[in-house]
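pasting input
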Amino acid sequence: MVFWVNQALLSFTLLIAAFSMWRMGPAFKRSKFAGPIALLGLAGLIFLPEQPLYFESDYHRCEFVSFCNEDGRESYLKVVTWSLISISTALIGCYTIIRGSRIYAERNPPVLAIGWFLLGISWWSISRSKWFEEAYTRLDVLAWMVCFIFGTAGTLYLLFRIIKFTENITPKDPPIEPLNDNERRLVTEMIRRNLGGES
Amino acid sequence: MFGFDFSIAGIGSLGAMMLIAMVFICYCFAIHLIVTWNPYHRPAIPLVFSLILSIGPMLAMSMEKDGNTSLAEILEIAFLFTSLGVGVIVLWMPIILAFITFQMLIVSRKSPTEDPLLEMLEN
């Protein structure tokens, strides 16, 4: 049987991979595998294997992870399930609000109301969570959160410099030919259809 | 025998949180670069750097005890880093959601403006 810690890590990796694949390529040609891989990752995160029993080989595996025990598995599952439900409710709510607003079409008050209702549910679940109440009243947790942001910002800056360096050492392509009349008409039509709302 | 003393900055300390953030971001970035590999992309250097920055601390931590390591230990530590990273991001959720809710308020009240690009096309 797969150790639940390994399955959780693999499932998280699959979710990251699915998100990257989903955003890859032009908007009209996204990867077909992103959806199934995301579903596989979600299933792996939710349906974790049981904690090994004391006579099984994996029982003594938890040397570094202090919460790697039966209680830890239960807590991990609770946090994952709550986060997935709460975040997806908020995302669906936002998507519905955007669909109901006047960004893409005429304003649709019922759709807008459903979106706000879903966003409200997400806020309600946060307000009911004791996890946030405990975290936001502890100075050490707040300090960890701020340090995490500093660490993230520093890492992103480092990666940005590395990408910039890679771009600088990459040989430049020769300038491309200007668009001909046909290509210009095609691009103009694409912009007109996309921005003008024509089918 | 190689060892790395993480007790200087125990897992609860502020420096360790910055390290966790670095490992977490680099891990995600490495996965992103691997799955989006294509002929028009030159990800070799960023990928090597992100793999070093993500796997390096995991290796060091797994060797901390007795100088030896195994794949099982590295996977366990990778789980520790990623779950802590995700956990801290989830802790930021109320603040992120407050910002998003404010944006949704603006979107709900917004009317579409004429795009200057369309006018340019007409002319």
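fyi The two ends of chain B are 73 Å apart (CA to CA).
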